[in-house]
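Hi P.,

Sorry for the delay on this. The queue was packed all week, but I finally got your sequence through. Input first:
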Amino acid sequence: MSEILLIEGLRKKFGDILVLDGIDFSVNEGEFFSIIGPSGCGKTTLLRIIAGLESYEGKVLLRGREIKGPGADRVMVFQDYALFPWRNVIGNIVFGLEVKGLKKERLLEIAKKMIEIVGLAGFEYKYPHELSGGMKQRVALARALVCDPELLLMDEPLSALDAQTRLEMQEEVVKIWQETKKTVVYVTHSIEEAVYLADRILVLSKRPAKVKKIVEVPIKRPRNRFSDEFSEICSKLYNLLK
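Then the structure:
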């Protein structure tokens, strides 16, 4: 596997408060890489640095190029969906492509293909207020994916959903990732979610955050949440976070 993202000696301060202290890790191309850690340890800050939305000290390289600001090669999906209420599903999905100046026919062609991938066929002309939480997050995912980023950054995208919808969306996220073959960096508070989704899991310590460990998840997909192997990895992660 070839490395796509490299982070070395990463430090981040907000005023006098040190949030991230000497973070080192890399992400491979096509990998589903998850980040967990105690509340307030800097997981979202780390994701925002990769997105180019925060300044930092150290080295953050995407394919060997230093990240100095936002770019079309990275797209972030937020937990609150961030959809435009005055645009329908297609309108929200094609927004990023409109900025690139694509012709309307091409826009609709790409959007309709993505709508099939994320399972929104039949809802193309619905508005956000007519959609469930799970459907809104599918729209947010589709909007990110149509831009064809090299890196898909996801900040607790399922945390606002009810328990049953969240489990269903975890399965959908895996399907979409397998179909699009994108490299994903995924922040979550849920250990079980990280184990269900990720190839590897980065465990951060409490603030100022350091890397406690990177845990591999060698379980074949689709994963059984009730298997001994699944439970063992969850227990290992719980102990690391204690």
